[in-house]
Amino acid sequence: MDTEPHIKIHNLSMGYGDFVVQHDLNCVIDKGDIFVVMGGNGCGKTTLMRALVGLQRPAAGTVFYSGEDFWNVPQEDQERLKRRLGIMFQSGALWSSMTLAENVALPLHEYTALPPHRIDEIVSFKLALVGLAGFEEFYPVELSGGMKKRAGLARAMALDPEILVIDEPSSGLDPLTARRLDDLILELRDSLGTTIVVVTHELASILTIGTNSVYLDTETRTMINTGNPREALKTGDPKVRHFLTRGEA
After folding, report:
1. 26, 41, 169, 220: which has the highest count of C-beta atoms within 10 A?
2. Which of 182, 222, 228 is nearest to 202 (CA)?
3. Cα–Cα dist 110/200, whole Å
4. What torsion, rounded to 10 degrees, do the Cα atoms 141, 144, 147, 148 define?
């Protein structure tokens, strides 16, 4: 049995030049977790996400994936580890000149040698998984905000990643659409066994889907380990409870 955590963030510090965004972050994310990175605006949530997925080298510390040191392995091993990750950016980050099918197929063309008919099958399956069956030939401009998010999720899942990293999934969505997206994230975790890291400040999402979490504090520029957000709401650190109750507790 594999005893290594799926993801381990170890002594991680991030910054821009001399400005420290967050320092001394340490947390463990187990397989099948929906791990929420939360905090107020400007606390460093997206910067942490960039360090997790290889877009920004941390100032200190590292990230381990199943025991492999992401930031201290050769480039070819880093690329191999990246292929275990699926990333859904806040805006969806779809190419406007491509259909949904072409957007979802991009990683498959890039990283596999599958024949076109097999890629088409996978693309249709992934779009169906997120409730977009039949929308293959639509362009992003023809979709609502929620549909764009789901299409971004389908593309993030194209290569059957072990780990999904999702940046602000509910941002800009109405409450009902945001709830449907939360339900979809839960379904993906339950049906595929995916480990999911969600960067968000949306309280409804945090309390609905989170199984484990960390709070990034803007004052001390480090983390408050919070565990299950629903338990933190009742008995957690006062700063975290203040955040989770919009300052009413």
Report:
1. 169
2. 182
3. 29
4. 40
Residue 237 lies in a domain: yes
With bands split at pLDDT 50, 70 and 90, how would you rate the model's confidence at 140? very high
Given the DSSP bridges, would you call strands 85-88 and 195-199 parallel, antiparallel or unpaired?
Answer: unpaired
Residue 28 lies in domain:
1-84+194-249
**Nearest to 29, CA basis, from 68, 63, 77, 73:** 63
| 23-37 mean pLDDT | 95
CATH code of the domain containing 13: 3.40.50.300
The answer to whether 52 and 165 have CB atoms below 8 angstroms apart is: yes
Residue 225 lies in a domain: yes
Q: Is 0.85 topped by the overall pTM?
A: yes
Q: How many CB atoms lie within 10 A of CB 177?
A: 17
Whether the Cβ atoms of residue 223 and residue 50 lie closer than 8 Å to each other:
no
Is the pLDDT assigned to residue 91 strictly greater than 70? Answer: no
Q: What is the dihedral of CA 158, 201, 228, 129, to 10 degrees?
A: -20
List Cβ neighbours of 103 (8 Å cut-off, separation of 6 or more): 94, 95, 140, 151, 155
Which helix (H) or strand (E) is 111 found in, with range? helix 100-111
